[in-house]
């Protein structure tokens, strides 16, 4: 409802210490006591015009009355008027303040996270209807002068029905008072939307904590069962040593491949996937990335685990990792006797390709054409994605969590231009 840039602000009267833990956490306030002091009601008719005008005077910019009416018509739970009980007349209600929300559907929440959501004139197609469960609740505006901010638990109760229960709330506070207020009642800086940490948004997490759905190339967890297959990117020296131990057992000990031929100088310019059965390193695959294709190679499964589906899982994980990186073609050089295995994944003999021999084994050239993943990594997307750990692009990383500290970047002066360090 309030406009301070293209977004709507969160404004409230509050003089609370935002450096401490929440002093007035919503769950700690007693609704029954507050109900004796305040009335919360749905505005209509002239009340809407009155609260829009009051917001304009106090905050300096508001959405039009027509815009507010459209939002209320789409979902009446979006705007709640407040008044002191001693001054409230049911026959002629007068609002002293208001709380406004936008019930965002999945696409609306996605746009909020990307920064493309237009809060000044919200598209109704991005809002959940009255009978729909929203993906997120955006605090559109608050005007609560002269102590009315204490009524927020009563308003929150209105958006805690079974339809709204457990839906996270978000706020974009553009004033110091707004920041102090939302942090005092339990919001925290750095909302998480679609795995991205957004320092400019505040977040009241009401949903149950859940780990992100594991991806095929990032499915190994400490909680995995003893026979469960898991795959992870080798990110540490310990992980890489596990990869080397698997390949030493398979290629050097079992297949008598010379050490210098197996460890060919490409291991530290590659991505390795490590496969587990339970918590035992059981297999691996190496991926090397070139300009317009990726190469899958060095697939190894320990002999005691070859009756499992780990080999299939590793190849599928490697293909999906390549798709996520934006590759449309994957190249391989499998043993000739394994061509049927690779055909299960769509690999075909490379046109004009050759059969060749190294380490006393015959190999063939195969290729797989892919559709680029819809969420493929690319310049122009969220910059934090490209600094996350390899294979964990779907989860917030340590570097973006550091952005919540809010420290300004250092700058270098040069030729009249300030450059971030």
Q: How would you describe what is shown here?
A:
The strands form four sheets. The chain has a seven-stranded mixed beta sheet with strand order 1-2-3-4-5-7-6. The two termini are 38 Å apart. 24% of the residues lie in helices and 24% in strands. It has two domains: 26-204, Gcn5-related N-acetyltransferase (GNAT) (Aminopeptidase), CATH 3.40.630.30; 229-369, Aminopeptidase, CATH 3.40.630. By secondary structure, it is α+β, with helices and mostly antiparallel strands.
CATH level-1 class of the largest domain: Alpha Beta
Number of helices: 11
CATH superfamily of the largest domain: Gcn5-related N-acetyltransferase (GNAT)
- Which class best fits the helix and strand makeup? alpha+beta
What is the fold-level CATH name, i.e. the topology of the largest domain?
A: Aminopeptidase
Helix share, percent: 10-25%
> What Rg, in angstroms, do the CA atoms define?
29 Å
Overall 3D shape? elongated
Domain count: the total is 2
* Distance, first to last CA: 38 Å
Overall mean confidence score, pLDDT:
83
What is the topology, as strand order, of the major beta sheet?
A: 1-2-3-4-5-7-6
Q: What's the architecture of the largest domain in CATH terms?
A: 3-Layer(aba) Sandwich
Point out poorly predicted stretches. 1-29, 411-421
Percent of sequence in beta strands = 15-25%
Please provide the count of β strands.
Answer: 18
Main beta-sheet annotation: 7 strands, mixed
Q: List SSEs in N-to-C order.
A: HEHHEEHEHEHEEEHHEEEHEHEEEEHEE
